[in-house]
Structure formats: C-alpha cells, structure tokens
Please model this.
Amino acid sequence: MRIYNTMTGKKEEFVPVTPGQVRMYVCGITVYDHCHIGHARSAIVFDVMRRYLKYKGFNVTYVKNFTDIDDKIINRAKQEGITWDVVAEKYIEAYYRDMDSLGVAGADIEPRATGHIREIIDFVKGLIDKGYAYEMQGDVYFEVEKFADYGKLSKRDLDDMLAGARVDVNEKKRNPMDFALWKASKEGEPAWESPWGPGRPGWHIECSAMSRKHLGDTFDIHGGGADLIFPHHENEIAQSEAYTGRPFVNYWVHNGFITVDREKMSKSLGNFFTIKEILNKFDAEVIRFFLLSTHYRSPIEFSDEQLRESEVSIDRFYTTSARLSDFLKQDHSREKACPDEKLLIDLLAKFRDKFAEAMDDDFNTALAIGHIFELIRVVNKYLDGKPSGRKAVELATKTGDFLKEAGGALNVFRRTPEEWSRALMSIKCPELTEEFIMTRIGDRQAAREKKDWAASDAIRKELEERGIVLEDKKEGTGWKVKISG
RNA sequence: GGCGGCGUACCCAAGUGGCUAAGGGGGAGGUCUGCAAAACCUUUAUGCAGCGGUUCAAAUCCGCUCGCCGCCUCCA
Model:
C-alpha cells in the first residue's frame, strides 16, 4: 500500500519498521473546550487508517495523546473558576462522548502530558546535556540553530522565517525561533518540580517524550491536522532527532481542513461548529460518512446541504440493505435466473479487490465509497429482475457480506435499516411513534381495499407532512422517514 | 514577502500519461404503480480554469496567466 508522506511530498510504498507491525502516533487534542467538526475529521481519518491497517493484517499500536496542561487550559480554569485538572477532566469526558457517537475507537494508549512529567524532564535534561537546549531564568529553550535539519518537514529555512518575523520578541531567547521545552510557572499556576525550578512542559516536548516511551526512537506513522506541520511537528522532529540521533518518524500524515464559506474553520475565526451541536440535527453516521466521502488530504466545505446529501446517500444504502434482507426472507423454492445476473457476478468477483485497491492508495475512502455505491446500483438492478432460487440467495448473501465487510473497514453502514430508521425518526420527527404510523397505514389499507383512493391519499399526505413517506410493495406498505427537502 | 496546495458537469466528488473521465445529489424523459414512493433504464463534461509546450499519446508532465485557499502566531 501507498501512503502520502508530507516529508517527501509523495506517495510512498508503506514499509513498516518491523514487518507486520505498525506503530502510529497521532496528536490528540488540548482539552480546554468541546471538540468541533475539524477535530472529528482528524479523529475519524486516523481511526479509519488504523482500522484499515488492522484489516490488512498489521498488528497496530495506536497512540493518541491528550494535552492536559497548557495556557489555554489554565485560562479556561480561571474563567470557569475551577482548577486546571477539573477543566481537563471535563473535556476529556466530553471528548469520549463525541468520539463514541462518531464511531471512533479509543487508541491503544492514550497518554497525558501530566502523566509523563518525569520522562519530559529527562528528555529536556538530555537535550541540555547534548548542547541543543539552554536554561534561562527557569525556562528551557530548544536552540533551533543547533539542529541542522530544522525546517525539513515544513520546507522552510530559518532565515526566511526570521524575515517574515511574526515571532514573539522574547529577550530570553537566543534566537526568536527557539521554542520552549520547559516554562517556569508564575505564582498560582500549576507547577511541577524540576532542575530549573517549578514549571510545566512546553507544548511540543510531550509528544517527543511520550511517543518515544510508548513507540520507541523510530516509528512508522505520525499524524495530525495539517496545521500541526509547523511549528508543532517540526519542533518534535528537532527535539527527538537531536535527542536520539535517529530518524524520528518514517511517514508523516496530515489531514486537510474543514472550511466554512471557503475559509478554514478555526477557533480564532469563530466559524466552527461543535460535534455536539451538529448531532442535534444529524445522526453521527451522517457526519462520519460526510467526512469520509472526500479524500482525507483535500479540504472539505462544511454545510447543512452537504450533510443532507450524505444523509440521502446513507439512506440509499440502508434502503438497499433492507431490500436485500427482505429478498432473503422470501420463498426461494422456485429457481429463476435474472437476465442481468452476469453484471452482479462480475462485480462481486472484483469488488473486494477494487475496494482494497482504493484504500491501499493512500486511504482513498472517497473512491472506496464510490465502489460501494456501484455495487448498490448493480444489486438493485439484479433484484429488479425478480430472481429466485438457490443461486439468487447465494448472490444476495454474498453482496450483503461484501457490503458489511467494506462498511466495517470504514466503520459505517453497520446498523440495521430499522436502527437507521429509528435514529432518523428521533431527529426528524421525535413526536411520532411506530405504533401511530402502523395504525395509519392500517387505516389507509382499509381505504385502499375499498378503492377509496381519496381517503388513502389523504392519509399518505398527512403522514408525509409529518415526515413519513409510504412505499406500497407487494408484501404490504412500508414506511420511511422522509429526508430530502 | 517566503513556502505549499487547489481549480473536473447544475452541485458535491474520484481520477495524476494510454480502455467508453468513478460514485452521489439535482434536472429531463421512460419502466413499474390505482396514483405515488422506492428501484431501475436513457439522458445531462468530444471535455477536465485559460493559453502555450513536451510526448505516438495529457485532466494527468513542464511553463506562463487568471482565480481561490492554506502555512509562516494558538489551531485538527
């Protein structure tokens, strides 16, 4: 399989350090606020990578950290009149709630910065000993000029950056680009004892210390949002490679941004939507599907229309899924081939390869989803031919299995059509009950038997206005939550 | 200013040298249906921002132009 590496700017054949084993580290969140959909994208994208690598048979160790101490957390604690650790705890809990609903599994190891103060201090000490860092009034800074490769990930050199000069003037630094490894704490701020006095870790050092502890000096994949390339990941490389003298990471993987009105969604612009608020209007699977329907490195424009389109697509999937299971429940004592069965047979023969090929090419979930919908169309056409018998059951079963398998790798399409329907109902028409709908369908059926089309259509219209569409089929009348418009 | 990315139909979106340019939504026509809905079929890009170039062959490589965006400051 091939993975795009930010370091080289190319897709590269993926070769893990240890055959059969993948070690990956993804930068998690700073826990000072609710997650927005940008965090959801990163979480889902790397969740899919991890799932797919496992699906391919790799033994994956996935580490994702929580930054649970920094200025933003301290500020939030002041605002809310609680301590920093309560803030962290509160938003870690909120994070888990959001991730749970989005189908994002927990990482194998979820280290917190404050749980690794000793490792961090050792790391900083080592950098000072090796001459890459210096202490200044209780702060410790990494000296970027000492690290020859500084800028290799983000493709910039120190002189250019200094010329741009939107950097802090800080008298304590030898070079304005030097960054803090350790920060002396002010009076009343959270502090840990260190050789340089009471203080707390800088932002970047935790990832170097924790990834090394849990994954070793050199590991396979390091990921995060594209906005972490500089300075965060650049600084991690400097720290880690200066400390160990070894290559830090083999594949750097970064997801693209979510935009609103073509502008990056971000905290500072204030144009963000939290996962929590989107979940009031859409099912979590809609968010997940939406984020996977575009390649992970491309920007995605976020809007209600886009989510609605995703909702329609998912509904199409579950409609076919229901159709398949209904079909399998039918009487198949009579053997009848469908004239279009060759199309389905051919596609089934290729489907798993096509799906894997898409995912193998830098996790092309958009293409993979396209293949799923191609299969949906072909099997619908097949079922339209009203086949029956052993062969038909076999083909339908196989189709269902493949759809389940592909959906499983992406962690979408894993519910029953009934569960999907109930989920939609609780969002779109929570005041209705299935009992009520069934009663009205019964009333309408009575009218239909009397060929009282006016009465029958009135009931159908009434239900549609309340968000339910009816479908008359041979076996009886079915209903669905209306989603378009 | 430095560095990077993007521009594919009415909309979203795959495709990065060679089979008829995936898939979804929308539109139009049709099959099915009491009428619908769903599903299916046909149709909707001789063309991939524009202009040049390389090549037997380009949406795909190179150059220029136009437009949009990102990073260079906390940020997924």
